[in-house]
Specification:
single chain, 298 residues, Jelly Rolls, Arc Repressor Mutant, subunit A, six-stranded antiparallel beta sheet, elongated, HTH-like, activator, Tscrpt_reg_AraC-type_HTH, DNA-binding, HTH-type transcriptional activator RhaR
């Protein structure tokens, strides 16, 4: 199945803005290119400032020098760099080709987000197991290709979508977000937690429901959800407690016991760590913050 840019031709688009930089993230360049000459070389100290480059390798291989470190950029690898800076990306001598999609952006949010992402992920990231950034970038290229006068606010919205896909990767490299992506073993454990969240469930109970050894269960569960099994169980308990606080007249002590917390002080402590307020404060705020169900994300 083609991804959107593959239905287009290889080219590039540049954007200039007459008005001041009122948008916190703006697209400066976007392109799909294939190079095979060692003359392709960009030095971060020889370009204008305030720019961020994100480049995704589709085929072949390029190289990135970041300070004194060298990185290979094979297929499904991308790099992020802030210009100016002591970086240089280039096509290596003796290589066959390097095909890639790239964007150059600027703006206060662009600088802030990409700086944070580089700190978390490093300048070079493998996307082999995480294809969402490619899908977002490919779709943006196709949209600009089909409509070079695409509204700048629409473009900025797409750039934020790319940023969020990168943040998702930084948060948990292999975290899945839909039930369909969840392994049967993890789903079985979550089903047990949701049906018996008030019970004294042990990790051994969860691993047995998953059909895995305790070690492999904990490893797989954390990899796929971003939380340990016990953290996930507490998340379910606190979500249920939040619902009871908003929709019943049960005392805080009763809500705690109903959701698996034997001791009220511990319930209050865990509730505050997840929600940011005590159970009583959360209940009092029900008229000012009307939500039917509180969802807690890892």
């Amino acid at each position: 199945m083609l991804i959107p840019h593959e239905a287009c031709a290889r080219t590039s688009f540049g954007f200039k803005y007459i008005s001041p930089a009122e948008l916190p993230i703006r697209l400066i360049n976007i392109g799909w290119d294939r190079v095979a000459a060692a003359s392709y070389r960009w030095n971060g100290m020889e370009r204008g400032g305030g720019l961020i480059v994100f480049q995704y390798t589709l085929a072949g291989k390029g190289m990135l020098r970041d300070g004194e470190r060298l990185y290979a950029l094979p297929k499904d690898t991308g790099f992020m760099t802030v210009v100016p800076g002591d970086q240089e990306y280039y096509f290596p001598e003796g290589g066959e080709e390097w095909e890639f999609l790239y964007i150059v952006v600027n703006g206060a949010d662009a600088l802030s987000h990409f700086t944070t992402l580089i700190k978390k992920l490093g300048p070079v990231v493998s996307f082999r197991e995480h294809r969402e950034p490619l899908a977002v970038l490919s779709r943006l290229y196709a949209e600009v290709y089909r409509d070079p006068e695409l509204d700048k606010y629409t473009i900025s919205a797409r750039l934020y979508e790319l940023l969020m896909s990168l943040h998702r990767l930084a948060e948990g490299r292999d975290i899945v977000r839909t039930p369909e992506e969840m392994p049967d073993s993890v789903r079985a454990a979550i089903k047990l937690m949701k049906s018996r969240f008030a019970a004294d469930l042990s990790v051994e109970d969860m691993a047995a429901a998953a059909g895995l050894s305790k070690y492999h269960f904990c490893r797989q569960f954390s990899k796929k959800t971003g939380l340990t099994p016990n953290q996930y169980l507490r998340k379910i308990r606190i979500e249920q407690a939040a619902w009871l606080l908003r929709h019943t007249d049960m005392t805080v002590e009763s809500v705690g016991r109903e959701t698996g917390f034997e001791y009220t002080n511990y319930f209050i402590k865990v509730f505050r760590s997840f929600v940011g307020t005590t159970p009583s404060e959360y209940r009092i705020g029900k008229t000012g913050d009307p939500v039917y169900f509180l969802r807690i994300e890892p």
